[in-house]
Amino acid sequence: MQTGASQGASGGAVPGRDRQFLEVYQKVSRLISTTLDHQEVMDTIVRSLTELLIVDACTIRLLDHSTRTFVLGAAHGVSLEYLSREVIDTEETLTTVRSGTPVYNEDAAQESCPQFRQAAAQEGIKSILTVPVLYKEELIGIMRLLTRRTHQFTDAEIALAVGLSEQIGVAISHGRMFKEMEARLVFLNGIQEISTLVNFTLDIDHIFNVVVERAAVSMGAKGCTLRLINPESGLLELAASYGLSAAYLHRGEVSHERNIQVVLNGEPVAIYDVRRDPRIQYHQQMTTEGICSLLAVPVKVNGEVIGALRILSDRPRVFTDSAVRFAVTLAEVGGSAIRKARSYQKITRLMRQVQAHEEFLANIIDSLQHQLLVIDQSRRIVLANQVYLETVGKPEDEVLDRSYTELCDITSEDSPVEQVLQGREMRPFLQTSGEDQAQRWLERTAFPIHDDSGNILYVIEIIRDVTSEYLLAEERLQSGKLQAILALAGTVAHEVNSPLFAALGTAELLAEELQLPEEREELEVIVRNLKQIGELTSKMVSMTGFTDQDYAGERKILSLTQNSKDAEDRR
């Protein structure tokens, strides 16, 4: 191995070569001034140098900053198999080139690296000149000139190659800058489109589909996939895809791939050659799909990685910083959409639950057999169940927001609602309504609903119609009174009957013995009165009820009711 132009052949260029070198410079300069496509510049140079420098092949490799390896940019005169070799050169040569010094090897068969010697022998390569491609003293790639015959590169050839590599560095850098500006504009439009979509729709599936499509189209890639972690299984599941076949998408589980594991740890991954990179597992499936390079970035929500976005290219590609940032930003927008959609779904589920609970509660309230009112702090009705509405015969809109005291005709400070609102101990409250036969008795009870601070928000009042219970209690009371009076009447009649019958018998005997008409008449009056008393005791024994009758002053007397059959028998 020899380094630097000073170690080349001592002789100058052959006659006419200086003019040819100048023509190459002019052609490259025209390319740089007329095109901003650095790929076209590289393709032209590798073709031109094989003719002008009488070499058999020329390659240009660009430095991939993410992996610190040299990836193919352009080539002419060598096979694809040679270009695809794993070891492109010895570490010694690459170290020297990285320092900015050109290196040439007159006999590749003498190299120390066996893989490199074998690849060169199979391709028939004898001599190699490797030149760094620099821009502003920064290494951005390497250019190689290869011959299939032993060739000693002259100082002029090395100087020409170095000069052209500098031009290549300028062309590549300028082209990259233009492409970067152009790409950034495309990327910015893509981000704006996705951001606008996220702000105006909650259809998460539609957002996912637009994200993967926009990522692939904006980056000029073959396709894109979005996979999200299933919270239950912990596995990555396909959420959306673009530009890829079903066979590729369902090739198998991808969670254990090294590139995915790196992404799930929160770092982006760029892979130039998916066919050989050890971070890829499904090499054959990717080759069949036509995938050459990929970029994978994490999808995050609130700093937590929930998935991976992968952009897949069908041509070898070094992903620039702006491309990586664009993919990361797209993933962030997707994460924001997921967060927004999840929040909306939670709110929707909560609202549905609240609605379901409200409907359930309303059904329960309406199914109550008693009247129910809910009153707020300002003593206005905020809820009335169906039983109450049917009882008062009013529609709901005539009841809600009405004053409680006005609607219920209650002004007493002892009403249950007032007791609760004033913080007093609630006591039973009985209200009567209607007149005569239509009179009703209503029992009202109230209970407070507090907020987190213990303040009363609402009062729930239950109104029970206790008319039947009240009338039953009155009937029982009257029945008790009747039984007591009957018992008393029977006792009195029993106690009176004994002396009454004795007095009546004596009076009847005396009436038979008396001779004087005046005496007999007076005794008959006594007998008649005694018989009336006897009839009264008989009525007391057979009485079944009584009624009140007014008497002198505020007094009342009882009018006894006698069983008609018993009265007839006594007659």
Tell me about this structure.
- With 571 residues, this protein is α+β, with helices and mostly antiparallel strands.
- The chain folds into four domains: 2-181, Beta-Lactamase; 201-345, GAF domain (Beta-Lactamase); 368-465, Beta-Lactamase; 470-570.
- The chain is 49% helix and 22% strand.
- The strands form four sheets. The chain has a six-stranded antiparallel β-sheet, with helices on both faces. It has a five-stranded antiparallel β-sheet with strand order 8-7-11-10-9, sandwiched between helices. Strands 13-12-16-15-14 form a five-stranded antiparallel β-sheet.
- The radius of gyration is 56 Å and the shape is rod-shaped.
- It catalyses: ATP + protein L-histidine = ADP + protein N-phospho-L-histidine.
- Pfam families: GAF_2, HisKA, PAS_4.
Number of DSSP-assigned strands: 18
Helix content: 40-55%
In spatial order, strands of the major sheet run 1-4-5-6-2-3
Mind summarizing the main beta sheet? 6 strands, antiparallel
End-to-end CA span: 157 Å
Please name the CATH topology of the largest domain.
Beta-Lactamase
Mean pLDDT: 77
Q: Write the CATH homologous superfamily of the largest domain.
A: GAF domain
Estimate nothing, just give the exact number of structural domains.
4
InterPro entries: GAF, GAF-like_dom_sf, HisK_dim/P_dom, HisK_dim/P_sf, PAS, PAS-assoc_C, PAS-like_dom_sf, PAS_4
Catalytic activity: ATP + protein L-histidine = ADP + protein N-phospho-L-histidine
Organism: Desulfobulbus oligotrophicus
GO molecular function: ATP binding; phosphorelay sensor kinase activity
